[in-house]
Amino acid sequence: MMPSRLTQCFHHRVRLRPAARRFRGVTELRIVDDDWLVQEIEKDVGVSLRNIRTDHIALLAFDQIRSYLADPKREFDGLRHGFLNLRVQIYLRGDKLVIEPYGRPARSPKAKAPAANTPEKKSE
Q1: What pTM did the predictor assign?
Q2: Running DSSP on this structure, what letter comes out for residue 79?
Q3: Is 32 domain-assigned?
């Protein structure tokens, strides 16, 4: 995403898509759709987000952010709200934060069926 576009989101409260996944040890906990504060936007570095509930800090490069969408329905409190659609998955493991690429699972290739009207080759 373009840095110039994100500068308009400074101090917005955003929810992440996909939402951050939480773990205690090896056990995955239920997903909590936390608000993250857009704390800093550095032109050549990226965006710094702070989880308002847990205080985790995530530094995302601009190419890790797909898009920003406003959430005007939540702006009743005088604060700006929105969504950040990410290209990465954030994992919260205790006091640690891990960022991994997020992609759809690869599809298994389908076996090609022989065409119905194709004559079979005879082996000699």
Answers
A1: 0.79
A2: S
A3: yes
